[in-house]
User: Fold this.
Amino acid sequence: MKTVKFKHSLIARAVAIAAVSSSVAVPAIAQEEQGLAAIEKIEVTATRRAGSIQDVPINIAALDGAALEEKGIGDISEVLRFVPGIVAIDQGGRNGNPIIVRGINADPLGQGSGNTQGGTVATYLGEIPLAIDLRITDLERVEVLLGPQGTLYGAGTLSGAIRYIPTKPKFDGQQVDIRGDLFQTNESDNLGTDLGFTFNMPLSDTFAVRASLDRFEDPGFIDQPFIVREIGVSEPDSPRGSDELAPQEDINGQISLTGKLAVRWQPNDMVDATLTYYFQDEENEGRTISSHMGALPTGKYENAQRVEEPNEESTSLLALEVIADLGFAELTSATGVSKYEEIGQRDQTDLLVSLEYSYETFPTFTAFTEENERTETFNQEVRLVSTTDSSLNWIVGAFYNKSEDVGYSAEYTPGYA
Assistant:
């Protein structure tokens, strides 16, 4: 797969050289006009109206699907490298990517902060708000809006909003795309893979189906040399190499499976309806941290936790988007039902020992916390946007959100009476 990409890049480079060689006779004005035309090809809908990114009166950046594919972008932290004033901290799959806007932390940086919508930058999948660190697959574009967006996007957008715009099913022919990438991270012992496919099938002139499935596997690069062999029995402060320990390498790996199935019905030029089911399942290993706890001699890419910290996350969304052209305005109805589940554990040993509640007097004391969370959300938005050629443009709409959250954190201290 890597070789194929390299060959394509050589062809593109040869074409670029030929273009430069033949551009000597092209007037500078014509070149400038061609450049402007190329820039204006990116159309955005951040203001709820389609238009050129240069004409939108807000601070916005966008990457279209071609740019996402060309740059090999896989998640939001890689997207934001191309957007000034905003950055996502890549903490690995276990912790997600908290976002910092213009030097201000917009999301919490602590553990378990990657899949919450409690910060000041909201993420949208299509028209539906969804707190997910989404893998970038089969998207038409990604739009990044900086600054307060409460007027059009509601709560959670004090610092901005990020919109993942999926590619809708198309009526202009069958399409099958297969993609793949092979990579390796420094300090990792194994290769990573990113494989996927997209399938588009028009069943008639008015009905089409589109599906995609991607599997991403990152082997990790952080080692964990001080995992105890048996919790509550093995000595957690044993020296490196002791029989009391069962060290593990590359413990911050991740396996992610992302999929989409969409059906689109467009009976005429006035109605366009799309029903889409999304899902993303993640199996995360330990946290991407390098720590030195107490007297434990940890290295630069080593984690001193005493127990493994696996974590599983599952996100799904069923979304229905209906757009109707009423002549004087465009009516949009967006309905979404989403579900998020998480279960995992984390090391609690050093925290409890530091509290000096007598845990430190138990030589083989090791503790861990099991955490479970489930969130179910229903969203409904109805929006009317004027389309007439007038000096007065208007938008009116209503939004309803209902969220149910259930979670617990249970602390275990095996062997400690």
